[in-house]
Amino acid sequence: EPSIGDSGCPERRLWLEGTPAQLGCAATGNPPPHVTCAKVGDTRDHPPGTPAVTSNVTWVKPGATQDPPRVTPTVTRAHAGTYQCRATNAHGSATRNVTVAVEYGPATVTLRVLPSANVTRGTTFSLDCGAEGVPAPTYSWALPPAPNLRVAPDNRSVTVTGATAANRGLYTCTATN
Fold it and tell me: Where is the Ig-like domain (predicted)?
């Protein structure tokens, strides 16, 4: 009867967006089991209640019987989720869930100036920076040199108190992970 262990099929995987999407789960058994994996809840082109072997990921199990090779897709954020891998041979089957997390670089960087980008001398304003990313991005700034700038502890915002001519210029926020 097939068996899927942690050493051949870790329950947590970390993929990087833009790399080839591959998940290998090694199973033991005699005869060698056939291994398939499907994203839990992925029922595209399948009747409700039946497992779907996703076409978005190439599942590789060296030495096992497998489906014909497919073009390996590139990892996207949509690949994140839980997959169920099933090893089957003439004597039975075994299943194992694998959780896939997808890391990606900062995207959709936003910079807001509050109350507005038009600043009157002597007023206070702030700039807030944000970005999507996994792991969470960190922030850095390139700012006009002025003594009345205060950067927040998390570096996501800058406050200018009592704006002067020294506060004119380009404010650049960089998000990295």
Answer: 2-101, 106-177
